[in-house]
Amino acid sequence: MDNMEKHFSEDKFWTKLKKFGVKAGHSVVYTALLLYFTLQKPDIPVKAKMVIIGALGYFILPTDLIPDIAVGVGFTDDLGALGLALLQVAMYIDDEVKAKAKAKLSDWFGDDVDTSEVDDKL
What we know:
Order of helices and strands: HHHHHH
Largest sheet: none
Number of strands: 0
Number of domains: 1
Helix content: 55-70%
Number of helices: 6
């Protein structure tokens, strides 16, 4: 994820999520949202912020290891990068961050979204 931070911006992040959210799936979107809302916290260390920015930069990058347009597997590498970052910053993900991510997820996908697969890893 070295140098991926140059690909991150809030505008690019929201554009990517809105454009590919359904195709990426609930787990990818929820993981990305958890990282995004954790990044917004003022009290997390710079190292954790860099991990998050690197992962979100990789997610935004359209020409990553597995192109996002590849049917069925296009977001596998994105989920891997996001998941790795999530594990590294899990100690900073609190109930408020989860609530914000779940609220946004519900706005886009409805209330029947199961986040337990990601939550169980935290």
